[in-house]
Amino acid sequence: MTTALTPNARTVLESRYLLRDEEGRPVETPEDMFRRVATHLAAAEAGWGGDTERWAEQFYRAMVDLDFLPNSPTLMNAGRELGQLAACFVLPVDDSLDSIFDTLKLAAKIHQSGGGTGFSFSRLRPRGDIVKTTMGVSSGPLSFLEVYDAATEHIKQGSFRRGANMGILDVTHPDVLEFIDAKRSGGITNFNMSVGVTESWMEKAAVGEMYDLVNPRTGDPAGSLSAGEVFDRMIEAAWATGDPGIVFLDRINEARTNPTPALGWIEATNPCGEQPLLPYEACVLGSINLGHFAAGGTADLERLGEVVDLAVRFLDDAVERTRYPIPEIERLHREGNRKIGLGVMGWADLLVQVGLAYDSQEAVALAEEVMGFVQVRADAASQQLARERGTFPNWENSVYGPKGWNRPMRNATRSTVAPTGTISILAACSSGIEPLFAVVFHRKVLDGKILLDVNPDFRRLAEAEGIWSPDLAEAIAAQGGVRGLALVPDELQRRFPTAHDVDPEWHVRHQAAFQKHVDNAVSKTINLPRDATPRDVRRVYLLAWKLGCKGITVYRDGSKTWQVLNRGRPSGTDLGTTEGSAPWAGEDREARPPNRGQSLLEVCPVCGQASFEFAEACGKCHSCGHSTC
Predict the structure, then answer these.
(1) Tens digit of pLDDT for each residue in 216-226?
(2) In the annotation, is 463 catalytic?
(3) Known catalytic residue: 45?
């Protein structure tokens, strides 16, 4: 059986995923890769008397049909010596040099295996605090975050991609202002950064009340600040640099997100914020391509449910078959909570196919319907696995246990919405729950040609309207979208908004709609236009708080001073045409800013811009703000 991969997808697979010989040449086909992954995971079925060949075939078909794909570490490492299949990890950073550098060593191992790491630096004593063992003073948490950042700069994840981190600091930490402003001077390139806040703090910020800072070493008060002024500082920094975001700490500790509160308080997430985890916890992710589930003007829930059932089983088998970097993580993941994160991609494609504009209340309502269905079906699938295999080992003392909801579950959490940057390229679909980045855009290929990449749904509909032509494609590429373009009928303009056509409020409303039916959290880029003001960032952050999001980040177009956009046709190049929802990720080794890390594939894997530089592998492209996860 041959998979319907686009040339873009095959290029990515050959560059990053397929097995290679000693000279670096691929020795497996994409179909071989899917077979390798399916066979490796289905071997877990034997432990419960299952038919391994039957499940291997079903797993293979779901992947080869591009209906479902697991996170990149599973595709890269399943059936290989490394064998580490999880994408998301959170590690503890306690207030001692031993803890700080032991954690850094472990993070290096995780990065080499393809995983991303999150840390809370909130336990570290503030800058200038006493260090009794040396009679010196502390350099503060930001200094150690910078050490982690520098180490990550020199670590390649499994020789495929760079390391990626999330750094979180509680808003009550005495060094919070230094943390908020950390990216204004540049230098930190391998971290996304977020401030941890609570409902009560947000209420104070909304009215400008004072709040207390706390020294984490002693627990004693360490002064006070105006919550309103700190909130303003966060907004101004996010407007300027895209960081920090906000993590709502009490929300990521609600029952469905932290169903084992006896094990501790969740204080950090993975690099893109969608996976809150306890220290030493991990999670395996996978995403369903919703663009394959349109039927009769709406979503085909019956067939979607069948893929949800299979995906939950796939991910639970992945938990069983992964090789963990240290025993502590194995104990908390495989032998503890068995968290999985089933999500979706191709959301914008589904909306186009059912005739809904992304920026419409009908689209938001469909988001709630579809993700609500996925959540209920994933819960049922995990309950069925619990009957077949047993509950997750920490079930007894969880909210699902006999003293709580008394609902047998195989997995402590089931759902997560990840950004799916690379796997959406493989599936040729839109990324995560994002709108389309562009309807037509230019991309540079290896031989120096510039190709027009055309959304296939738009071309199909434009041909049906009798308006398709190369000149139309060039006109669309010149401005990046079709809204306001007189050559395009109003109905097509309505159905094909791009990320920058959509008012930020609709971005937040989509995130909130999905969050209502997701156990963990939702990764979403809230795009802001170049001329957005800090007032617009404030509006986004407050709306996310009011609508129940568990975290929020923004990206203002042009907020990096050396951004190079690639919307128009570059001069002096040949021009061809190709099609695909997801962009190609070829190489462009031009326009590289100095002293910045480079990714292996120097083109945004979400939007395909060729002239950019990634400073954060799981963070934001400095040209477009998209994530590479």
Answers:
(1) 999 999 999 99
(2) no
(3) no
